[in-house]
Amino acid sequence: MAELSRIGVSIDSDLLHRFDSYIAGKGYENRSEAFRDLIRDRLVGSAVLSGSALVVGTVTLIYDHHTRLLPEKLTDLQHESHALVISTLHAHLDHANCLEVVVLRGKSRDVQKLADRLISTKGVQHGRLVMSSPETVSHHTHKHG
Ligand code: NI
Question: Domain 54-132, what fold?
Answer without folding.
Answer: Alpha-Beta Plaits (3.30.70)
